[in-house]
Amino acid sequence: SAVISQKPSRDICQRGTSLTIQCQVDSQVTMMFWYRQQPGQSLTLIATANQGSEATYESGFVIDKFPISRPNLTFSTLTVSNMSPEDSSIYLCSVLAGTQGATGELFFGEGSRLTVL
Amino acid sequence: LAKTTQPISMDSYEGQEVNITCSHNNIATNDYITWYQQFPSQGPRFIIQGYKTKVTNEVASLFIPADRKSSTLSLPRVSLSDTAVYYCLVGEAGSYQLTFGKGTKLSVIP
Question: Which of B7, B46, B57, B89 has the greatest CB tally within 10 Å of its CB?
């Protein structure tokens, strides 16, 4: 299993500013993922972050808007840049760990709820 | 990636068995079916995973017919604490990118 801590848990931000979300895992993991969940919606994968390599972004997400760092096997950050009200969402950090099933098990943090005014 | 279709919402009384069906008509040979549960203000958590026939754990059962074009998550004797959104995911073994569909919002009524 894996325990994930995210900071901040919530924040209110002004339009045009940037915010960095931190994700700390209690064990070393290779695969880390960042998801976005807009109000009342499902989760959308933003990017996959592996230690030692650049993050891989999903369609519709770009590095300039969502730069990601992965300095070691227990930590990652996601920055939401030049925010607009449309970026108001919950951002979730996730790691692949455990041995449940053929595809492994995703563990999620509690999420960081961003409100952009 | 196989697309999944689930009912948007379901209601159930406490103590009843709840069955949530997920359609995945274009599931591939190497795909596994996984269900996650999400409570408000929390990240999703793994419930169960299967490939074919039936899988059971301490929380739920997963029924998968021979053609694997659908699957049914069965929750025995639900309680109010089972009120959550349930997601059905289909993903290839060894592939770590899982796509979340819209999910089913289960409301358990006293």
Answer: B89
